[in-house]
Design goal:
Length: 197
């Protein structure tokens, strides 16, 4: 019984640390102005929480066709794309702890995902190889990601299902003690009742 109570208290403490919800951008259903074969307008800050850098536009195999045989979406029909600059940058409104995406890049190339803090210091990076005709997953987990850069060496690539979250913020020590106090009180009460019985 005591072990079960201890597990419950531990779970309550861990749960109270608060994980941020994962945000996934699938690039579906955007206005035609953001499509490469539509208005060719940069996606920019269309989504709340993140701003995409210059010339990040949308390709869609249904509305405006593209070579989705070679560069298929991971889900749905739309992907994020740039044809002018081989770099796609995404700046977050608040620091995040996780960034992931599905990509396709052809030829004998590869794709870099790099995470930076607000001081432009490289926090972490991930690399994926050429994968024409399919999609592959790249992700980074680091504390305090302010923005990420995607780049290769001048070849075209697409990304889909771009995800991020704020990670977990530790509870300050006084708050932990406040949470622990009531839990210990419950344990003491149960032990007292068992002894009295």
């Amino acid at each position: 019984m005591n072990r079960a109570i201890a597990i419950l208290i531990g779970a309550a403490l861990l749960g109270s640390a608060g994980a941020s919800a994962l945000t996934v951008l699938n690039f579906e259903g955007l206005p035609s102005t953001y499509y490469f074969y539509g208005g060719n307008t940069n996606l920019g800050n269309y989504y709340s929480g993140v701003t995409f850098g210059a010339q990040a536009t949308i390709l869609d195999r249904v509305i405006y066709g593209y070579n989705d045989y070679g560069f298929p979406p991971h889900s749905g029909d739309a992907v994020l794309y740039t044809d002018v600059d081989p770099i796609i940058r995404a700046d977050f409104d608040s620091p995040v702890g996780h960034v992931g995406l599905w990509y396709t890049i052809g030829y004998d190339s590869g794709l870099w995902l790099e995470a930076y803090d607000s001081g432009d210091n490289l926090l972490a990076s991930a690399w994926g190889g050429a994968n024409l005709y399919t999609t592959s997953f790249l992700s980074i987990d680091a504390v305090g990601i302010d923005y990420v850069k995607l780049h290769d060496f001048g070849n075209s690539y697409t990304i889909d299902d771009f995800e991020y979250d704020g990670g977990q913020e530790p509870i300050p020590e006084p708050a932990s003690l406040l949470l622990l106090g009531p839990g210990l009180g419950v344990v003491a009460f149960i032990r007292h009742r068992r002894r009295a019985a």
